Each structure stands twice: as structure tokens, then as C-alpha cells.
Amino acid sequence: MIIEGLNDFTAEIIRVWNTQMLSLRTVEHLYMFFFALFFSILIGVVTGVLTYRNQKLAGPVLNSLNVVETVPDVALLVLLLPIFGIGAAPTIVASILYSILPIARDTYTGLSNVPREYIEIAEALGLTPREVLFKVRFPLSLPLIAGGVRIAVVFTMGVVTLGGLIAAGGLGAALQNGIQLYDMGTILVTGAWVGLLAVLLDGIAGIIEKILKARYGTWS
């Protein structure tokens, strides 16, 4: 009985995987995910550094990013449609907009809160303010920045999955097919696969964060 149930379960997974082309959908999904995450990290870190170096900008910039976070993800996708059309472009842009805040905020916080004794030692060695920023403050902020990136991983995975609603492809498209056809097998298998990918990516981000904490400390 148990073996028969396992066989049926395996057969259902194979059916869904083949009919919904989940291998191709996974590649599409991860492409959008990593593309969006890369630019989120790039923009978020640069924003954090700029707001640290121009403290008057910190409040307005971070508050503006907070406003973006209050917009529901589906609503943001809809708002971007007239500009970028349907497909992957608005999905990637929405993912980036949602993910900038935790990275920028943690970059700014990390740079601003490096213990004073480290700065005094660097200044005593003759480092310029720019060298202190990039050789002392930034490396010591990496554990906190990694925490922001870990949050961005979750945001990005969620928005990319929702991209299936606007023909972005990826695993969200397979989920949308399952919902439209009321195919519970497709919904469950695809949903479980998305969840597993999210857990794996979060786990990788968590390992990187732990490595950075072990190297640079957990003062932040």
C-alpha cells in the first residue's frame, strides 16, 4: 500500500514536471532571480555608501525606499506595466525596488556604527578618510550587509514568483497554469519546488552571513 502510494506520488511529480516544463521554468526563474538580486545588491550597497557619506540624504532616501515597501507587490507590478509592458522586465524592476531597502539600510547602519577604536587605529596608521571607509568600515560592515542581502533573497524570490501573473515565465507561470486549470497536482508540486528553492537560497545566504560574522565579528 505504501509502495503503491509512493509510486503514484512519484508519477504525479513526473507528470507535472514534464507537462509544465519545470526544468525550463526553473532556469527562467533563476535567471530573473539572480539578475534582480545582482542589481539589488549593487544599487543597495552604492545607496548605503552614498547616504553614509552624505548624512543629510539618509533620511529622505531611506524613507522613500520605505514608501516603496508599503506598496503591495501585485499593485507595484501593475503600476509598472504601462512603463515596461508585460513579461520579465516589470518583474525584475519590481524585485529590485523591493530589495534595495534592506541592503541600503544595513549598509548605511553598518558603516555608521563601526566601533570607534577601529577608526582611531586606522587614523593613527595614517589612513585617509576614503581609505578608512573602504578598508575598515566597509569590511567590518559586511556581516550586516549580508543580513540585508538575505532578506532581499526572500523578497526577490516572492516577487519573481508573482511575475507569473504578468506573463514573466518562470515557476510562477506553472503555478498560474495550475490555478487556472484547478490542477492541484501542478499547484502542489510547483509550490513545493518554489519553496524548496527559496529554502536552499536562503540557506546559502545564511552560510555566507555566518562566514562573514566569523571573520569580521558580530559587533553590528
Automatic annotation (TrEMBL):
Q: Where are the transmembrane segments?
A: 30-54, 74-101, 151-175, 187-208
Return any one Pfam family short name: BPD_transp_1
Q: Would you say which domain of life the source belongs to?
A: Archaea
**How far does the signal peptide extend, from start to end residue?**
none
**A cellular component annotation (GO) from this entry:** plasma membrane
Q: Where in the cell is it found?
A: Cell membrane; Membrane
In the bilayer, the protein is annotated as: Multi-pass membrane protein
- Chief subcellular site? membrane
Q: Where is the ABC transmembrane type-1 domain?
A: 26-205
Q: Which SUPFAM superfamilies match?
A: MetI-like
Q: Sorted alphabetically, which keywords does the UniProt record give?
A: Membrane, Transmembrane, Transmembrane helix, Transport
The GO annotation for biological process reads: glycine betaine transport; transmembrane transport
InterPro entries reported in the protein's UniProt record: ABC_transp_perm/SBD (IPR051204), MetI-like (IPR000515), MetI-like_sf (IPR035906)
Looking up Gene3D superfamilies in the UniProt record yields: MetI-like
Q: Which family does it belong to?
A: Belongs to the binding-protein-dependent transport system permease family.
Can you name this protein? Glycine/betaine ABC transporter permease
The scientific name of the source species is Methanosarcina mazei
Source lineage: Archaea, Methanobacteriati, Methanobacteriota, Stenosarchaea group, Methanomicrobia
